[in-house]
Amino acid sequence: MLPHQRLSLRFDTCSVCECIGAPCLLRNWCVWVVQVQYRMHPALSEFPSNSFYEGTLQNGVTMAERIQPGLNFPWPQPDKPMLFYVQLGQEEISVTGTSYLNRTGKGPAAACHCLALPNVFLPCCSS
After folding, report:
1. Quick one: DSSP state of residue 123?
2. Is the pTM of this model over 0.85?
3. Which of 2, 10, 43, 69 has the fewest CB atoms within 10 Å of its CB?
4. Residue 95: CB atoms within 10 Å
5. pLDDT reported for residue 5
6. Beta carbons of 41 and 82 less than 8 angstroms apart
7. Residues 43, 65: Cα–Cα separation, whole Å
8. 85, 109 in Cβ contact below 8 A?
9. Shortest CA distance to 40 belongs to which of 96, 81, 87, 2?
10. What is residue 55's DSSP assignment?
11. What is the DSSP letter of 104?
12. What are phi and psi of 117, to 5 degrees?
């Protein structure tokens, strides 16, 4: 179960600010929480585990299973293949009003992709 999610601007005006699972708990319904994740590199899953699962989220994959052979990308920490790229472009609210987008972030993200995976074509970034 994750912290409260913003599904609609209408909820903001109704002062609804609870996690998605809270109504289930109030009704004594059984709530299942993810215990093992299989998609992320273990270094990346550390943040959601500590922030949302009180450190209990386990990894179903090892670091060795998440190593990409032949990948020549200059990771800041080679043993943790991840980075946070700060993009200070102007943010816009999306059409739905529930999220933000930053159009200036597309170019640098595509450049990182091309550097990391030069043989993988991104049709969405070809314009």
Report:
1. G
2. no
3. 69
4. 8
5. 47
6. yes
7. 12
8. yes
9. 81
10. T
11. G
12. -130, 70
**DSSP labels, 65-89:** GG--TT-----SSTTS--------S
Position 60: which residue type? Answer: G
Is 52 in contact with 67 (CB distance < 8 Å)? no
Burial of 68 (0-12, 13-18, 19+ CB in 10 A): exposed
Would you state the structure tokens that stand for residue 29, as one six-digit string? Answer: 């319904």
Tens of pLDDT along the chain (127 residues) come to: 444 444 555 555 544 445 666 777 778 777 777 899 999 999 999 999 998 888 999 999 999 888 877 777 788 888 888 888 888 888 888 888 888 888 888 888 888 878 777 766 655 544 4
